[in-house]
């Protein structure tokens, strides 16, 4: 175990080579008794700080502007959200208690993914401690997603001339129907989704490539289905930027999951997606996506493992932080 830790430590020098995007406002919205674990954002942030991350390792996002939102969403929908005039059917589809706090939450989350995309293009890698709201459509929100932060970030990067081609690698339990729909009409984004077929949404949109799993599928089935596509898709499509939705909800103890995927299996997923992008020097922005384990600590640990895999792939970083992140007391698969 000590040799393994030393081999990891040898990859790092003196500072964290990428930024986290985060603000404490992420967890200040009151959802009441809701399955969405809003406190996971604070818990993950506090875990990173406790393990040695410093305030300067974090960037506070600015809220997305109205113009940013209209890159993907219709002007009518944006206006109804900002004025609090969504219909009862639109509120029902959202499946979250609507409030001005919720609107601010999603404006910040969207701004956070925009900033993560910018940072990835600047330094090669970034981690947004939030984001991944892939169910929002141009004219409505659904499935806990008010705005589609991933689509907005890519449209903004494209409009500003920062990218020509991009890829979404969606590892959430649920298919990213909103992003699949939006980019189905645009040829500059390749959408990849690996998800549970017999789960929400009941009607799936067509991604560029959908990999479908079914209730009861375990690590072996999951990884066997995933591995043939990476690094192949990266090499064939040659994106200028990848946004990776590292969902924690395929986990076997997730309240919304019918899959039997262990945390170790999800760690292997993360390593494949992140390591191959970094090997090919493709800028990578990581967002968290979903996660609804009965014990919120398990969701946070899965997200924390994703962060560790991101750190692992970089050749420069803080020795003290890595020592605490990957300690001899922890199991490493």
In the CATH hierarchy, the third-tier topology of the largest domain is known as Arginase, Chain A
- The helix tally amounts to 13
Structure class: alpha/beta
Mean pLDDT: 91
> Largest beta sheet: what is the strand line-up?
2-1-3-8-7-4-5-6
Gyration radius (Cα, Å) is 19 Å
Summarize the amount of helix as a percent range. 40-55%
How far do the termini sit from each other?
11 Å
Quaternary assembly: single chain
| Major sheet summary line | 8 strands, parallel
* Domain module tally: 2
Q: What global shape is seen?
A: globular
What proportion strand?
5-15%
Secondary-structure element series: HEHEHHHHEHEHEEHHEHEHH
Strand tally is 8
- Name given to the CATH homologous superfamily of the largest domain: Histone deacetylase domain
The CATH architecture term of the largest domain is 3-Layer(aba) Sandwich
- Assign the CATH class of the largest domain: Alpha Beta
Keywords:
about 325 residues; alpha/beta; Arginase, Chain A; 2 domains; 8-stranded parallel β-sheet; 13 helices; 8 strands; about 40% helix; globular; disordered N terminus; disordered C terminus
Q: What does this 3D model show about the protein?
A:
With 333 residues, the protein is of the alpha/beta class. It has 2 domains: 1-13 and 315-333, no CATH class; 18-314, Histone deacetylase domain (Arginase, Chain A), CATH 3.40.800. It contains 13 helices and 8 strands. An 8-stranded parallel beta sheet has the order 2-1-3-8-7-4-5-6, with helices on both faces. Helix 6 packs across helix 7 (149-159), helix 9 (219-226) runs parallel beside helix 11 (263-279) and helix 11 (263-279) runs parallel beside helix 12. It is globular and about 45 Å long. It starts with a helix and ends in an 8-residue tail after the last helix.
């Amino acid at each position: 175990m000590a040799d393994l830790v030393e081999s990891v430590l040898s990859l790092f020098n003196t500072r964290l080579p990428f930024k986290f995007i985060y603000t404490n406002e992420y967890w200040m919205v009151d959802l009441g008794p809701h399955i969405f674990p809003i406190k996971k954002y604070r818990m993950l942030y506090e875990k990173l700080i406790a393990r040695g991350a410093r305030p300067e390792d974090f960037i506070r996002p600015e809220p997305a502007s109205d113009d940013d939102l209209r890159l993907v969403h219709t002007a009518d929908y944006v206006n109804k959200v900002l004025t609090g005039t969504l219909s009862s059917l639109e509120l029902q589809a959202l499946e979250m208690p609507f409030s001005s706090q919720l609107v601010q939450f999603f404006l910040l989350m969207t701004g956070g993914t925009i900033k993560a995309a910018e940072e990835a293009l600047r330094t090669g890698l970034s981690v947004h401690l939030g984001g991944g709201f892939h169910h929002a459509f141009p004219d409505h929100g659904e499935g806990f997603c008010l705005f589609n932060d991933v689509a907005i970030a890519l449209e903004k990067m494209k409009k500003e001339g920062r990218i020509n081609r991009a890829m979404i690698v969606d590892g959430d339990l649920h298919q990213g129907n909103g992003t699949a729909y939006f980019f189905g009409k645009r040829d500059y984004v390749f959408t990849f989704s690996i998800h549970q077929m017999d789960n929400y949404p009941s009607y799936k949109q067509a991604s560029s490539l959908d990999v479908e799993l079914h209730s009861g599928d375990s690590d072996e089935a999951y990884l066997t289905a995933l591995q043939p596509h990476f690094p192949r898709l990266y090499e064939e499509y040659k994106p200028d930027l990848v946004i990776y939705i590292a969902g924690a909800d395929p986990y076997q103890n997730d309240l919304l999951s019918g899959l039997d995927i262990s945390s170790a299996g999800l760690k292997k997923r993360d390593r494949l997606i992140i390591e191959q992008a970094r090997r090919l020097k493709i800028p990578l922005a990581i967002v968290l996506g979903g996660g609804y384990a009965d014990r919120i600590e398990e969701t946070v640990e899965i997200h924390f493992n994703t962060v560790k895999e991101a750190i692992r792939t970089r050749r420069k970083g803080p020795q003290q932080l890595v020592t605490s992140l990957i300690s001899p007391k922890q199991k490493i698969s």
